């Protein structure tokens, strides 16, 4: 049931059951700056978070950076061709090492060198060399050159971040002892690994800053009860009543059937439908019914009332055909329609009038998102 902020109702925890009356996350979790700070560890520091696409760093020494919460990392391909992730933090005195480098414009380095005092690391993170001033001590009257200890390459290596992959998708996890990625991904892993995702190239990236909490957008992405009223062009070709929402532990998928059969060559997956996969906490994979390609969304919080959406589109070739251009324009239109909805919802949540919202029976995917958030906060508190 809806709980207004009338000073009478107690806000309660999300109940595990969608039919229960307290089935939504209390509104303050979408508007409170302290919650945003807490989520940097409780959510983005504990779960597997998407870092980027391995195809964008095909050669040894290719790298890009990514900021997740307050943590900056370097994702790179080492000499053995493996993808590894490291904190972008020098082992000497903690300087950030490389400048921000987007996945769409990766850098390449034979070694990673910190610009501050030129400590240099191998592509596997081990310390490779330091300038002479770290081997001799001419400026230190208390120390003879021969007493300067040699720096151990491994002990002074970069700090590695747990990383793992599903096909070409690279995920990282900052927890000390994370659950396996396969466990968090559940069925998503099997589904994605059955598709030739690595045969497709990044062709377009659209980045938007949106005025709402990241979970508001996540919730909107996860249901289609708003589609009839708000995406009229898009729903025209869909059998909305035939769509299905499937929920796994940390992953849910919306299947939309197309009214008319689309040419089989038109898509990467076999079903005559579009599939929208949401993967807790902030990653989505879009399998289109009407384009031979797929897309990903990264839903990165900026603060409690803003997030950045990174929409990446993968096609057979990185050069778009006219049809693919048109497809991306249509997809962008959908995004903009959704941005209006979520920004309007955020205004309502920020007004302070509502204490706890009411989810409908088809919003069980949204319920899952809220429940996972609540569980993350509680595990972190405990
Ligand atoms: S902080 Fe990186 S070399 Fe000194
Ligand atoms: Fe929508």
Question: Helices, strands, pairings?
Answer:
Elements: E1 3-4, H1 33-42, E2 49-53, E3 62-68, E4 71-77, E5 83-87, E6 107-108, E7 112-113, E8 120-121, E9 127-129, E10 160-166, E11 169-173, H2 181-185, H3 187-193, E12 201-210, H4 214-221, H5 227-230, H6 232-235, E13 238-247, E14 251-258, E15 273-279, E16 283-287, E17 293-303, E18 306-315, H7 322-350, E19 354-356, H8 364-381
Antiparallel strand pairs: 1-19, 2-11, 3-4, 3-6, 4-5, 5-10, 7-8, 8-9, 10-11, 12-18, 13-14, 14-15, 15-16, 16-17, 17-18
Helix pairs in contact: 1-8, 4-7, 4-8
The protein binds FE2/S2 (inorganic) cluster and fe (ii) ion.
Fe (ii) ion binds at residues 220, 226-227, 231, 338.
Q: How does this model look, in words?
A:
- This protein has 382 residues and is α+β, with helices and mostly antiparallel strands.
- 22% of the residues lie in helices and 29% in strands.
- It has eight helices and 19 strands.
- The strands form four sheets. Strands 2-11-10-5-4-3-6 form a seven-stranded antiparallel beta sheet.
- Helix 1 packs across helix 8 and helix 4 runs antiparallel to helix 8.
- The longest helix is centred in the last third of the chain and has 29 residues.
- The protein is globular and about 80 Å long.
- The model has no long low-confidence stretch (mean pLDDT 95).
- The chain binds FE2/S2 (inorganic) cluster (FES) and fe (ii) ion.
């Amino acid at each position: 049931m809806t709980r207004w902020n009338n000073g009478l109702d107690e806000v309660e925890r999300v109940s595990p059951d969608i039919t229960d009356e307290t089935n939504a996350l209390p509104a303050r979790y979408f508007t409170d700056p302290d919650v945003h700070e807490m989520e940097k560890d409780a959510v983005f520091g504990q779960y597997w978070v998407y870092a980027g696409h391995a195809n964008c760093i095909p050669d040894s020494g290719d790298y890009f950076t990514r900021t997740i919460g307050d943590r900056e990392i370097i994702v790179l391909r080492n000499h053995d061709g493996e993808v590894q992730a490291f904190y972008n933090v020098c082992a000497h005195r903690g300087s950030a090492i490389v400048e921000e480098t987007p996945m769409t414009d990766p850098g390449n380095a034979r070694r990673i060198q910190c610009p501050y005092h030129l400590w240099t690391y191998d592509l596997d993170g081990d310390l490779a060399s330091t300038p002479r001033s770290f081997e001799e001590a001419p400026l230190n009257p208390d120390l003879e050159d021969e007493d300067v200890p040699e720096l151990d390459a491994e002990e002074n290596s970069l700090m590695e971040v747990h990383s793992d992959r599903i096909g070409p998708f690279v995920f990282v996890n900052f927890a000390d002892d994370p659950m396996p990625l396969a466990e968090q991904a559940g069925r998503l892993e099997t589904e994605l690994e059955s598709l030739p995702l690595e045969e497709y190239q990044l062709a377009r990236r659209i980045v938007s800053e949106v005025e709402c909490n990241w979970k508001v957008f996540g919730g909107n992405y996860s249901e289609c009860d708003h589609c009839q009223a708000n995406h009229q062009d898009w729903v025209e070709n869909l059998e909305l009543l035939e769509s299905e929402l499937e929920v796994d532990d940390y992953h849910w998928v919306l299947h939309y059937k197309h009214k008319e059969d689309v040419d089989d060559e038109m898509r990467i997956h076999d079903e005559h439908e579009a599939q929208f996969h949401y993967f807790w906490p902030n990653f989505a994979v879009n399998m289109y019914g009407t384009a031979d390609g797929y897309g990903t969304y990264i839903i990165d919080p900026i603060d409690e009332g803003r997030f950045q959406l990174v929409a990446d589109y993968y096609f057979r070739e990185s050069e778009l055909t006219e049809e693919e251009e048109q497809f991306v324009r249509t997809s962008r239109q959908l995004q903009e329609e959704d941005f209006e909805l979520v920004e309007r919802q955020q205004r309502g949540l920020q007004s302070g009038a509502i204490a706890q919202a009411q989810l409908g029976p088809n919003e069980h995917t949204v319920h899952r998102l809220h429940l996972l958030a609540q569980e993350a906060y509680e595990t972190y508190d405990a």
